[in-house]
Structures are given as C-alpha cells and as structure tokens.
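Q: Entry one of two.
A:
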Amino acid sequence: MPLIVGVDEAGYGPNLGPLVIAASAWRAPLDHCAHGADVPTVMPAFLCCERSPLGNARGAAAGAAAGPGIADSKVVYRNGGVAALERTVLAALTVLRGESGGASAEAPPGVMDKAIAPKPGATAASPLPRTAAMLCRELADCHAAGWLEERANREIDLPLPRAAAPAEIDRAAALWRAAADETPLELVGLVARPVFPAEFNRLLEQRGRKSDLLSQASLELVFDLIDRLRNRWEPDEPLTIYCDKHGGRNRYSALLSAAAGGALFAPIEESRELSRYRGRYDRRPVEWLFLSKAERLVPVALASLTAKYLRELAMEAFNRYWTSRVPGLRATAGYPVDARRFLAETEAARRAEATPISAFWRNK
C-alpha cells in the first residue's frame, strides 16, 4: 500500500518561542492514490478535510461529542482553543497505539518509533504521555533536546491533558476508529521537530534565509520518518508527500536532493500554486508536492495541529516562567510587535538570570 506524508509548521512568524515542524504518515490503497497522475488529480477527494469523516473543524470545538476534527490548525484553534488541538492530537496518538491509551497515564521514555503504529497483531497499547516533556520526547526523539534544555520547559513541565478531558480524547479516538470504514486513510506515524531560539539562530546563520531553514528542517524530518517506516511497506510501493509552500519559494529540487543524500528529484511543475517533483528514494518512487494552502489536506492538517499544539504548550510554559519573575508582565504569543514589548519588559529579569539574548529572541 502506498504511503502518504503531510508536513506543516507552526510558529514561522514569531520572534519568541519555537518554530515547530510536524509530519504525519498514512497508508492508503493504491487505487485511491494519484501518484504519477496529471495535475488535476493530485489531490484525491478522500484527502480533503472538507470531505473526510476525520475533518470537522467546527465539530472540534464541541467537546465530548466531537470527533477528531482534523482541519487547518488556525481554524480549529479559533473555534475550540487548546482543547480542540489537544483532543485531536492525543486521539491520534491513541489510535496509533491500537486501543485506548488512557490520557492521564504516564508514558515510558519516548523515542520517535513510539509514535509509529504497532505492527499488525500487537495488542498492548502504551499509555499516552503524562507531561509536555514526555510528549515532546515521544514525537521528536533526538530533536527534543531543545525542549528539554529550554529554561521554561525544564522548570515547568506541564501535565497533560491541559484542556480536554481524558473522556473527550478517548471518545474522539473511538469516533476516529468508527470512521475507518468511511475513509481509505490509515494513520501510521506522527513526528515533530521543535526548533527553539538558540538552535533557530544557529541554523539561520548557516542557511542565511528563514525559508531555507524551514525547508531544510522540514525535509530532514520527513526523510527521517521515511527511514523509520522503511519496513512498513514494500520497496516498490509509491510515496507521496504533501507540504505547504515555504516562504513563497517555488523551486525545491536542490533542497530535496541535498536532504535525500544526493537522490535526484525532477521538477514536473514549479508555480505559485504548486511545485511538484518526482524521483526515487531507497528504491521507492517518490512524488513531492509543495502546495499553497496545503493544510486543506488531512495529512498536512494533522501535522499542522500537532505543530500548533506543541508550540502552544511551549508558549504556556514560557509565559508562566517569565510572568512569575516580572510582576504585572502580560503573556505574549511571540509575534513581532508584542514580542518587542515582552523583550523590553523582561530585560532586567533576563540579565539577572544571565539568559543570553540568542537563547530568548529569534533573529527573524
């Protein structure tokens, strides 16, 4: 069965807090996929959030009666806040474990492989992460180092769930499973990469442009996920990756080749709406599509929700840390204008704690 991967980010614009990239992997029957097809069919109907039984942005705000609600994270967050993000992301992890995970249970030390569905025949389900750090270790593996080193997250390890009741998460997972007969998609992997200011600034200095930083980190995350799923599908089964455009970029061939260790990806189309490439990786045919508004697709939307949820957790810890040190300090979402206010109002506290500006403020 072909593999379909969706990639998206949260926090590209702010100066404070992490940039978070996430990717979700799905299997679908070959006859439902558009690999190698002409442009009008590169987005099969079953991938679209509006048509999928898994995609219900308005329902995501409806609490315990809601289904998974996979849609653009901005819409889901606007309608239902952190609870809606949390309900869907933790339900996804529950589905990956094959049965109810128990949202308040403690998870064992996480590695990225834990976020990949158990092999057929497996019956034991791992409990869901109990804290934000556990969740990040599970989804991000080696990339979780920045989370664990970041001062606020190290001191304030938020217990999970934050806003959604465990019963709501379990119900969303149950409704997800019930929808399995209505969609050919099967979730098989979910991973993330948070990039905190210190690493962000180092990578920005190396790459020069923020869009290059985003592209490199996104592609590396996808190829890492592909390598970890290598034994889950046959060598000749195709792989299709859907990704949002990066900073208005239209050409990605060189970046794809570099991230794939030199494998060549031939451009099929490069335009403002769609940049499309074909090639082979690890003997498998690969098609990569960079789309405008790619979050309208289920695989990209779940990646978007996961990235947004992790960033919201990081920003909650960040704000709690600094507001506890500066009386009267208002919390921030980290976007440029308000971020400068926050930067100025925390200056004395940061100096007292010897927090370097490079570990606090993203240069772009």
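Q: Entry two of two.
A:
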Amino acid sequence: MMLSAAPSNPDKPHRGTIFVEDATVLDIRHYAGDQFVLRVEARKCAAHARPGSFVHIRCDETLPMRRPLSIMRANAQEGWIEMLFKIVGGGLRSLSHKRQGDTVSVMGPIGQPFRPSQERPYALLVGGGVGIPPMVFLAEWLKDDSSAWHAVAFMGSELPFPFEVIDSRLPADWAPPGVIAAHPLLERWQIPSRLATLSGFAGCFDGYVPALLETWLHQQPPEVLAKSEIFACGPTPMLRATAAIARNHNVACQVSLEEFMACAVGGCAGCAVEVRTDKGPAMKRVCVDGPVFDATSVF
C-alpha cells in the first residue's frame, strides 16, 4: 500500500505535488487551552493529501511568514482539509480570529507521508499534543482501506484534549483498569483508542503516552509483534522515547519530526537534520525529505 502521491518528476518526488490555493474557511472550532480545529475548502490539497503530510498556511495578509500545520483530515470528494493548531504566537493568534467565509492562502500538501505495510497489519498510532492530527488522518485512511488492518491509537496531552473525550465501549483488555477515555471519531470508526496524561483527566492513563504504548506491547505474543509497526508524531522527547521502546521490542517504527520551517518546500534547508543512510550520515530536509522518517535513521 503506497500513500504517496505520484510525482511528476521521479528524481524530485516533491515536484508537481504541492499547490497554492486561496482556501475558504468553512468552520473553526475553539477548544480549551487555546486550541483550534480549522476546516477550509482547498480542493487540490484535499485530493493529494496523505497521512503525515502538512500545509504551509498564511495566518494573516500582514504576516509574510507562513506556519506549518499537520493535516488532521482530508475529504477529496468534498474538497476540504482540517488542521489542529494551538496558539503559540501572533501568527496563529491571527489565524484563530478567522471566521466562516474568510480566505487564507494554503500551500500543500507537503512532505513524505507514513507508509503502512500490509506485512505489518498491526498499526500502532502514537500521537502527543499537536502530533495527534496525523494519527487521526492515518486512522481514517486505514479505516477506508480495503485491507485487513488492526489499528490501535494512543494519544497523550497535558492540555485538555481538543475533542470531546468519551468512555470507550470497544474492547481493550490490554489497558489498565479504569483507562477508558477515548477519541470519539476513532470510536465511531471502530478503532480502539486510549488517552494518556499527567494532568489527572478522568479515564486517562496516568503517565506519558509512550508508556501506554509499552503497556500494549508487553502483552502481545512474538508473532503479533513481528507483524506490528508504530507510527508516531509529537515532541522530540516523546519520539525519542517511542523509538527506544520500538527498538527494545524489535518493532518497526516510523516517526514524523517536528522542526522549525521557513520555506517548507526544500529551498532554504533550515529544517535539515542528520539522518543515517546506507551510505553514511546525510543531512535531510524535514519538510520535503520528511517529515516522516524511519525511527532508526534519526534516533
């Protein structure tokens, strides 16, 4: 199963797959902790978006620098995409003031997506904070695929979650007693999910989300671990911990890196990180060479 859009130039896989659109705001929802979910009509981006890709959005006409935001959902038929963001500066504060009918410039989709393999049908989705959106996107993609996937999602946040937390009714015998808080969309899609926090939210696992993942891994037989793969997005310490857990259990792992970006299309190389390759260490751009990398190549 390939999740990447077909490039127009195989030597430059990001060429011909990034579009700039004047997107119309369809909806914006405010959640606790200065978190927002923004839905815009951006038909070209929606048609080519894949789980793990992101957009570079202009928050306000007076601000020349765009902001990278992960795509949380995309509907190619209806032509919309959704993004989650948290106010961390003036640009995203301006974006939070947008209203239905406003126009924002969107560049995307950008980046190499997650690549699930049918050889590893147990997909373990790990999202922390603003790393949750790609996991929602990937969960929906797996749900819509005709292959037989066994997906489980683990999500963590110290802020109130940017969705209406519900008590899960899906079986999860691996979860500690009382850990029943779940994501409502994933519950509707019949994908088990559990939430982790150190903030004491009801029904959540008391700890960081990699520890919740490890709870699942500890209870699986070797034949399941051999057919499992972890997909993770979140802060670097969370990704580093997740990569270490994957290594300890000998489980494949893909991570989506968070990095500061200026151009987001590979021109400035300001987001470059060192990656291990078959030919030795190399500098790769998180925006177009990533943001998704094999965990063993970066940690």
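A: Comment on entry two: The first strand starts at residue 19 and ends at 31. Helices lie at 43-48, 90-96, 132-144, 184-188, 209-218, 222-225, 236-248, 295-298.
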